Amino acid sequence: MNIRLDVAIRDIVGRTGRNIIRAIIAGERDPKKLASLADIRVKKSQEEIALSLKGEWKEDLIYLLQDCFSTYEYYREKIVLCDKQIKLLLDNYLQQKPTALKPLQVKRKKKTHKNSLSFDLRPFAYQILGVGLYEVENISHATVLSILSVIGDDGMQKFPSAKHFVSWLRLAPNNKITQNKFYFDCYFL
Q: What is the spatial distance between Cα 156 and Cα 136, in angstroms, rounded to a whole number?
């Protein structure tokens, strides 16, 4: 097929990429019409996009594209269903657990990404753990969900201080000085 959609747009499974792929699967082959499907936020011009969409259209590769794209959409649907199930389980858990915590005051909204959970995990994490992990810079939904699943609801009380928790996460450096030599080992999660 020798088209280069990845050169034209940065994210081929973003809105523009999905629209162009759907049009190709539906039978559209004109590069200018395909380029006109680009979102206004795409940095490249429609002419540049059209140039990258010129090529030979082979039916076997079109079929392969259709098959791969339908698999991608299937998995995206499954991820959304999984997110709904996680939210349902967290709702049920919080209804069973009495809590005396005040509602979470969101100071700032963290930027969500396309692969983030489809719901806001912050209130659940705060009610279960009792601390606002999202106040830590660069902590993501996946990290908080992992912490929730590993240490459980009473896990934060097991750590006497924040330093102990950071050490358990292996985010604290291990500084050793032996015979005038300085060793710096940093462990990451």
A: 15
Kindly tell me the burial class for residue 129, based on how many C-beta atoms sit within 10 Å of its own C-beta (0-12, 13-18, 19 or more): buried
Q: What is the dihedral of CA 144, 149, 154, 156, to 10 degrees?
A: -40
Residue 100, Cα to own-chain centre: how many angstroms? 31
Determine the 3-state secondary structure of 177 from DSSP. Answer: strand
Strand partners, 177: 182
Q: Which letter does DSSP use for residue 105 in this model? A: -
Q: What is the pLDDT of residues 129-163, one digit of tens each?
A: 877 777 777 778 888 888 888 887 777 778 888 78
The backbone region for 158, taken as left when phi is positive above 0, alpha when psi lies in -120 to 50, beta otherwise, is alpha
**pTM for this entry:** 0.70
Q: d(Cα 35, Cα 51) in Å, to the nearest integer?
A: 9
Q: What is the largest CA-CA distance in the chain?
A: 72
Q: Around Cβ 131, how many Cβ atoms within 10 Å?
A: 14
Between β-strands 174-178 and 181-185, what pairing exists: parallel, antiparallel or unpaired? antiparallel
Which residue blocks in the chain are alpha helix, DSSP H? 5-8, 15-26, 31-35, 46-52, 59-96, 122-129, 141-151, 162-168
> Residue 2: left if φ>0, alpha if ψ -120 to 50, beta else—which one?
left
